[in-house]
Design a protein that fits this description.
360 residues, mainly alpha, Rhomboid-like fold, 16 helices, 61% helix, 2% strand, transmembrane, Rhomboid-like_sf, Transmembrane protein 115, TMEM115/Pdh1/Rbl19, transmembrane helix
Length: 360
């Protein structure tokens, strides 16, 4: 009774925080939160839990309840799980959606949850094959956003891998440590009975599906796909001590998938405009000694050409001096032509001279 009074007293505060979290978010984020709340209300009906959650025995033929692979993620049966789901989706709307866009975030939501439904069902089918326990097929109900929560931790690791969250005496905990750390704690809570067995299974499935999608298949605006960064390898999820053997296993599996055609061969691209000075890139199939020999020949040819270009002005100056010291030949100037007598102008000087002669 006191709990209900405390909840009712703090309800305005919860409403204020909820409105602040979902404020300025897209319609898709609000839609997911509303559907999660509605599904929580339906979880009090036992038939609705079976109809909306993934039951491994009903997902496979002949029942083939394929719609449950799209509805199980909205169903939660505990209020604290509903709160975690809403906070997770709200943070995605604040952090991931501005970077990816609303469509890409919804596509990531659908791919991760559908992959979690399939992988988790196959896991329980494998356990049934090992134990012949039918309760694993028909008594297990997979529901909730635990797999999508794992996908969000992987996306945050990709976006901000080196952000320090907590400093402990054993070392720093960054975003790259969150996925496996949360899965490890969920496994401990399942061992002590605080969580259902489906939560660790869904969380690990979400890590695998989200990493595969972000690593190899996510399409970017520049036309590329995936993220082949060295700090986003599968071994980077593990501690530094375990990374070498994990890298050997993961690279072997990837090479096998490439050989059978399930995956494409990784093509690394390097932007030479941002390369540090002195970087030497060796192409496949070229001997490093051969490339060094060609580089020396090219440098020699370049130096010879530069020396020739520098010698040309000196030769031009020498040629000018040689021409200045040569014998010069004087060219006589042409006499000034006398003005022509025009028949239209009277010859005044001639007449005056003749007149003076006659008078004398």
């Amino acid at each position: 009774m006191s709990t209900m009074k405390g909840l009712s007293r703090n309800m305005p505060y919860f409403q204020q925080q909820f409105a602040a979290l979902l404020g300025n978010t897209s319609a898709s984020v609000k839609f997911i939160c509303i559907v999660v709340l509605i599904s929580y209300c339906l979880s009090y009906i036992e038939q609705m839990i079976i109809a909306l959650s993934v039951t491994p025995g009903y997902l496979k033929p002949p029942a083939f309840w394929i719609w449950t692979a799209f509805t199980f993620c909205f169903l939660e049966i505990h209020l604290w799980e509903v709160c975690i789901d809403i906070v997770t989706v709200g943070l995605c709307g604040k952090l991931i959606e501005p970077l990816w866009g609303a469509f890409e975030m919804m596509l990531f939501f659908a791919i991760v949850n559908f992959g979690v439904a399939i992988i988790s069902s196959l896991f329980y089918l494998f356990l049934y094959m090992c134990t012949s326990d039918t309760d694993l097929l028909f008594g297990t109900h997979i529901h909730g956003l635990a797999g999508y929560l794992a996908g969000v931790t992987v996306a945050v690791k990709q976006i901000m891998p080196d952000t320090i969250l907590v400093k402990t005496p054993m070392g720093k905990i960054t975003n790259r440590n969150i996925p496996l750390t949360v899965w490890f704690f969920s496994l401990l809570f399942w061992i002590v009975g605080a969580l259902e067995g489906t939560h660790p299974t869904m969380f690990l499935s979400g890590i695998i599906v989200s990493w595969i999608y972000l690593r190899f298949y996510q399409k970017h605006t520049n036309g590329t796909r995936g993220d082949m960064a060295d700090n986003f390898t599968f071994a980077s999820f593990f501690p530094n001590v375990l990374q070498p053997p994990i890298a050997v296993v993961s690279n072997t599996v990837h090479s096998f998938f490439v050989r059978v055609g399930l995956c494409r061969k990784v093509v690394r691209r390097f932007d030479m405009s941002n390369a540090p000075p002195g970087l030497v890139v060796y192409l496949p199939g070229i001997d490093p000694q051969d490339s060094e020999r060609r580089r020396q020949i090219a440098l020699k040819a370049l130096s010879e050409r530069l020396s020739k270009d520098h010698s040309k002005p000196w030769q031009q100056d020498r040629n000018k001096k040689h021409l200045s010291n040569a014998v010069s030949i004087a060219i006589p100037e042409s006499p000034i032509p006398k003005p022509l007598v025009s028949p239209l102008i009277p010859q005044m000087n001639a007449n005056i001279h003749s007149h003076m002669t006659s008078n004398t």
